[in-house]
Design goal:
heterodimer, A: mainly alpha, globular, B: 4 strands, about 0% strand, cell membrane (chain A), transmembrane (chain A)
Chain lengths: ~290, ~350
Amino acid sequence: MAYFLELLISGALTGLMYALVALGFVLIYKSAGVPNLAQGALVMTAGYAVWLVMSWGLPVWAAIPIAGAIMFGFGLVVERLLLRRMVGQPVIMVVMLTLGLEILLRGLVPGILGSAPKPIDLGIDFAPIIIGDVFINRTSLYGGIAALVLVGAALAFFRTRLGTKLRAVSDDHVSSWAVGISVERAIGISWGLAGVAAVVAGALWGSSQGVDWTLSALLFPAVAVVILGGVDSIHGVVLGGILVGVLGTVIPGYLDSVAGGSTRDVVTSLIILLTIMIRPFGMFGREDIERI
Amino acid sequence: MFYRLSGTYHTSYRADRRLWKVPTDRWLVVALLVLGAFAPLYVSPLYLGSYVLPWVIWSAAALSLTLLMGLAGQLHFGFAAVMAIGAYASIHLTRAGIPFEISLLLSGLIAAVIGAVFGGAALRVKGLYLVMATLAMQYLVDWVVVNVPWISGGAHATLRTPAVSFLLLPLDSLAARYWLALGWAVLLTVFFMNVKRSSFGRALVAIRDKDFAAAVIGVDPFRTKLMAFFTSSFMGGVTGAILAFCFYRAVTPEQFGFNVSIQLVAMVLVGGLGSVIGSWLGAGFVLLAPIFLTNIISALAATGWVPVSQNFLSHLPLMIYGAMIIGFLLLEPLGLAKIYDNIRKYFLVWPFRHARS
C-alpha cells in the first residue's frame, strides 16, 4: 500500500512537471493555432540558458528572471522569423517547421554549449521528505507547486487587458483585426510567454536530471498531457498532467518487472491514442474539430 | 530549346496520355535507367554500398509515403514502424523456410494489414490529431518490437538476415543487392506514375482536396482512405524488407525509430509532396546533403580555416538537417520538384525568356 501511495504521489508530482512543459504548448496553440512540437527543445534551450546565466556566477533568483527574459526574446524572434511566414499554410507545413526547429535546436545548442549533462543547482535539498512510509522527492514537490502557481498565473493573466486580447485572438483572427487588435503582436507575445514557461520547466527538470539534449524528449509526455487535457485548455493541463503522470508511474511500477521495461512509453502512447479515438478534443478542449 | 516541343504532335488520345510526352524527357529517363543499371560497373563499391544503395532504397520508401501524404493527404508520422514490420516479418518468414520472393510479398501484406489499422485513426480525425495518433502508434510498434523476444530476439539483439537468392540471383554480392533494390524502386516509380492517372489515384486526390466534396461525387472516403493506407503500407513493408536484406543485413529496432519516421517525412516534404522526381531528389538530398556538408566543414576545420570544436562538428549533421527542413519550408514549400520544374521550364524556351503561350 505504501508502495502504491508513493507511486501515486510521485506520479502526480511528475505529471505536474509535465504540465509545466505542456503549458507552453497550450499557450501557443490557444492563441496562434500552431502545434508547437519544438516545445521540448525550447525547454532544453531554456535549461541551457539557466545554466549559462548561472555559470556567470549569478545566484538562482537572478538567473531565472534573466533566462526568462532571454527566452521571451527568443520566442519573439522564432515567431517573427519562422512562424509568421507560415500563416495560411497547411498544418503539415507548420508541424514540420516546428519539428525542423526542434532538430535544429537539438543540434545547435548542445553543439555550442557542450553535450555533457550540465548540473543546475537550485538550492533544493536532495534528501526526500518522509511522511510515514512515503518518500517524496523535493524537486518534484517544488516542481508541482511551481506548475500550479504558473498555471494559476496564466489563468489570471488571461483576465488582464492583454490576456483578454490574446483570448480574442484565439477566438478569431479576422474579427480581432477588425476591432483593432494586433494579431501578430499577440501571437508573438504568446510565443514569448511559452519561452518563459519553458524556463521554469527547464530549470526544474534540469535540476532533477541535468541539462542535456534528453530534455527535449519531454515533448512526448507533454503531447499526451495536451491531448488529454485539450489542446486549447490551460486548466486542462493540470488535470491532464496529473492523469498522465499517475498512469505513467503507477502502471509501469507494477508492469515493468513483468513486461520487460519502459512500459511508460506504452502508457503514454495509449493515452494519446484512446483520447483521440474517444474524445479528440480532450477533456476540456473546445469541440471545434472537424469530423469526417 | 533543350526540351523541344516542335514536331511533337499528339494526334491520338493514346499519344496524349503517355507518361513522358516530350522526347527529351523520354531520352533522359532512358539514359538515367541505363546509368543506374550499370552503376556497379563504374561506381566504386564503397560509394555504391554507402551512398547509392541507401539512396535508391530510401527513394522507394519516400515514394511509398508520398502516395499517402502527397496523393491522399493523410499525414503519417509513424512510417518507419510500418517498414520495421516489413523488415522483421520478412526475416522471420525466410528463416521459417519460405522462399524469399514469397516472403517479400507476405511481409508486405502483413505490413499493409497492420498499416491499415493505423489508418483506422484517419477515419476519425485528421491534421494535427492524425499526426499525434500515428506518432503514438510508432511508439507502440517500437515497444512491441523491442520487448517481444520472439520478434526482435531480445531487447538489444541484432537479427542477421539469412542468405537468400532472388529469382536465382544470390544476394551475397553488392551488385546483386543493388539491382534488386533498383528494380523495386523502378517498379514503385512506374506504379506511382500510373496510379496518378488511374481512377484510384484520382479518388485519392479528391479525398485529399476535400473529403466531403469527394463523398458527394461518389468517392467513398472510408474505403479510399483505408486503401491508401493499405497500398502505401504494402509498399513501405516491402521496402523495409529490402532495406533489411539489401542494406542493413542485420536489423535492430533502433534502425526504425521515431527519428527515421521524421526523416521520411522530411524527404517527402523537401522533395515536394506527391511528386515522383521529388521523392528521388528529396531522399538523396536529406540523406546525403548533411553528410557532404559535414565532410566539407570538417575538412575546412582540419585545415584550420574555421575554428570549430569537435563537439560542434559531431552535432553538425543534426543542425544542417534541421536547418534544411526549415529552409525548404520557408523558401520553397513545393520542394526540389518545383526547383527542377523551374529549371526545366527555363530550358524549355531557352534562349528566350518566355514562351508564347
